[in-house]
Write a structure and sequence with these properties.
single chain, alpha/beta, TIM Barrel, 8-stranded parallel beta sheet, two-stranded antiparallel sheet, 13 helices, 12 strands, 44% helix
């Protein structure tokens, strides 16, 4: 494909724009609580395609896939573990169709929900589940595997290695951090941004970063920590549309497209090479981020 590799694009100084939230978009299309979002890639492919197309049309340089919960361990909850390869390949094909030949597909891989230190799964079982998913995503047309929302280093490392050792895809790995009462940032498993960055790079990730859990403002602080620990790393950020507020029992993400876009210059200065959205973000948010990136003068 003429677009080349993502790493080459950012190495040449391009600031790239990624896509926004998928879950809320699918819910608006009728996804029910307790329903398997990934199965829609087989049963309602046109609805999934519409999500990806909306982000591409908003100006995204890359789009994820409806495969966040696509490991056999996650699909097992719906009795679909034996269809993992089929579902993941379908998800990547849909995003590939939306992206065409000049945009990238960064296929989504989320946590399994299994914890190695609890001994409820072996390293081999985790590795093989990630391997199955990554190979199917590559077969469907993914350019990169986006391992995201990670909190444990051991699981993230196995996912990175499974993708690097069994596909030709570029590998992105992002962790989710929360601010502690002491003002530090840590994952749910107590991992710092610096330790997460080093571990992901040592395992072979091409691009590292952070997603979910925080709005743009806090992402700037997290990015500075990552950049200090890994000054030469290429970094992706998928920020939420602010911190959620509960209104009548529903979580609302309050940041407008304009508010998110206003923080883009500071995010770039902190070290971001790729900027997109997570929870609460829409095509309007991505369009505003794209405009801000285009207006940014290095």
């Amino acid at each position: 494909m003429s677009k080349g590799r993502i790493v080459e694009a950012v190495k040449n100084g391009r600031i790239l724009v990624s896509d926004g939230a998928w879950g809320t978009f699918l819910q608006k299309k009728g996804l029910k609580p307790g329903e398997c979002p990934e199965l829609w890639c087989v049963t309602r492919p046109n609805d999934v395609l519409d999500v990806a197309k909306n982000y591409i049309e908003a100006g995204a340089d890359m789009v994820e896939s409806d495969s966040f919960g696509g490991t056999s361990f996650k699909l097992e909850h719906y009795g679909l573990a034996d269809r993992a390869a089929e579902i993941n390949e379908a998800s990547a094909k849909i995003s590939r169709k939306a992206a065409g030949n000049d945009k990238w597909v960064i296929a989504s891989v989320g946590p399994t929900g299994k914890i190695l230190i609890m001994a409820d799964v072996t390293e081999e079982e985790l590795y093989n589940s990630f391997k199955e998913q990554a190979m199917a995503l590559e077969k469907g047309g993914a350019d990169a595997i986006c391992i995201e929302t990670m909190s444990a280093i051991d699981e993230a490392v196995l996912a990175i290695k499974a993708a690097k050792e069994n596909t030709k895809c570029e590998v992105i790995c992002t962790f989710t951090f929360e601010r502690t009462v002491n003002g530090e940032y840590r994952t749910m498993m107590g991992v710092s941004p610096a330790d997460a960055a080093k571990a992901a790079l040592d395992a072979g990730a091409d691009i590292i970063g952070t997603n979910c859990g925080n709005g743009m403002e806090r992402m700037i602080d997290i990015l500075k920590e990552i950049k200090k620990a890994a000054p030469k790393a290429y970094i992706l950020v998928h920020a939420n549309a602010g911190l959620p507020k509960n209104v009548d029992g529903v979580d609302i993400f309050p940041e407008t497209p304009e508010e998110m876009a206003a923080k883009v210059p500071d995010l770039i200065k902190a070290g971001a090479n790729i900027i997109g959205g997570c929870c609460g973000t829409t095509p309007a948010h991505i369009a505003a981020i794209k405009k801000a990136v285009q207006n940014y003068k290095k």
